[in-house]
Amino acid sequence: MINIIQGDSCVTLVIDRPERRNALTNAMYAELDLALQAAQADAGCKAVILTGSGGHFTAGNDLSEFQTARSAGDSPALAFLRRLAGIDVPVIAAVEGRAVGVGVTLLQHCDFVYAGHDAVFSLPFVSLGLCPEGGSSLLMAQIAGARRAAEWLLLGRPFSAREAQDSGLITAATASGQALEHARRIAAELASQPGQALRDSKRILRNAGRAALDRAFDDERDLFTQRLRSEEAQAAFRRFFESKKK
């Protein structure tokens, strides 16, 4: 589930499924999407904080939902990501523990990202028979450089908060357990800014790359859907679930 904590000028969205390391379901993506819509509609909202419960950010998509047929058009996950990329309210991510798959790619659409120094990031799309998503086929090389993007997206090698900071994926590494507190301090600073100027400024910062990002979302969606149906992907999912039984 998603816990929504409403403040005077900031809303905090907590991914709260600790028994599964906050793996995201379609229903949870829909909750996040609706919460972002509400923040956008609230003229008094000057920041959104996105974090996870139980010592982890998110283990990514719940893979059990990848074993069922996907309908045409955007999945709930992609609908959420488009909303996150398009919102005018500044978004701050507070990451502790593990951030996997979409838990990493969504960070590309946040304005500020703080992570505990012992956080671990990974993008295991290829090892699951899939392809990059979340706009990462476009944005990851822009953020981290082509060589680092290839290492993260093609090899799926886990990387540290220090490496994420050095590559520009996160704003800063914090002491362990302090990412959320740091995010709250940044939200307080944002709250002191004129609200409409804040939103207008964020929008113009993002506008230049909007058309290219929309194309990347579309292309990734089409290929991801094909990959989900592939025997490579389905075999990878079976191996994953078998490993969990041992």
What is the CATH-assigned architecture? Answer: Alpha-Beta Complex
Terminal residue distance: 27 Å
**Cα-based radius of gyration, to the nearest Å:** 17 Å
Order of SSEs, N→C? EEHEHEEHEEHHEHEHHHH
Structural domain count: 1
Low-confidence stretches: none
Oligomeric grouping of the chains: single chain
Structural class: alpha/beta
The CATH class label is Alpha Beta
Q: Look up the CATH topology.
A: 2-enoyl-CoA Hydratase, Chain A, domain 1
> How much beta, percentage-wise?
15-25%
Task: Record the strand order, biggest sheet.
Answer: 1-2-3-4-6-9
Question: How many E strands?
Answer: 9
Helix content: 40-55%
Average pLDDT reading = 96
- The global form is globular
What is the H level of CATH, i.e. the homologous superfamily?
Answer: 2-enoyl-CoA Hydratase, Chain A, domain 1
Total helices: the number is 10
Question: How is the main sheet built?
Answer: 6 strands, mixed
Task: List key phrases describing it.
2-enoyl-CoA Hydratase, Chain A, domain 1; three-stranded mixed beta sheet; 10 helices; single chain; alpha/beta
Question: Could you walk me through the main structural features you see in this protein, from its secondary elements to its overall organization?
Answer:
This protein has one domain (2-176): 2-enoyl-CoA Hydratase, Chain A, domain 1 (Alpha-Beta Complex), CATH 3.90.226. Helix content is 48%, strand content 15%. The protein has 10 helices and 9 strands. A 6-stranded mixed beta sheet has the order 1-2-3-4-6-9, sandwiched between helices. Strand 1 (2-6) and strand 2 form a beta hairpin. The radius of gyration is 17 Å and the shape is globular.
